[in-house]
Design brief:
The protein is built from four helices and eight strands. The protein is of the alpha+beta class. The chain folds into two domains: 95 residues, SH3 type barrels, CATH 2.30.30.60; 89 residues, 2-Layer Sandwich (Alpha-Beta Plaits), CATH 3.30.70. The strands form two sheets. Strands 4-3-2-1-5 form a five-stranded antiparallel sheet. It has a three-stranded antiparallel sheet with strand order 6-8-7, with helices on one face. A hairpin with a 3-residue loop joins strand 7 and strand 8. The protein is elongated.
Amino acid sequence: MIGLAGQQVFSNVLAGLLLLLSRPFEVGDRITVTTWQYGAILPSYPPKYFSDDLLYPGFTGVIKDISLNYTLIKTDQGPLVKIPNNILIQAAFIVHGVDKRWVKTRYEVSKPIDIDHLLDVVREVVRKNEWVVDPEGARITIQNVTPTSIVLAIDALCKGELEDPPRSSLLYELERAISGTKHQVTTMH
């Protein structure tokens, strides 16, 4: 019994030493850890309205401490997660840059609307948005067309480490611009 418990402790310590020496991430880095040992429940909502990283079965947050036994992560949702180093050393993780990140925004527009004009308006909103770092590199695609609506996806490299502020800004500006466009179309008829 003591041998089995010692094996886990020894495994954590060796993994902790490897993490401290190899430095795949450091305190202050924002990472997503995904491993079969610690899964997460996937959302049951239609994914077209949520960012891709919400679908990763793992934890996203900022590294607060790396000790010999555990790595402490403050998740984006707030709670602290202590992951044993022997689990973390065999996990897949993504190290996010804290100065900018790709933000995926979905926007649904009801018909009738001129699709070419709509795409021009969206490009202009993305170009002028204060959060977007590289407006020319943004991808604007049509995700779905139904008899009553058009669903757009806007992928843009944005400032900051979180997705919500730039997504909120893009959605706000899109709504203002497109509502104005639809008002003009309605008034013209």
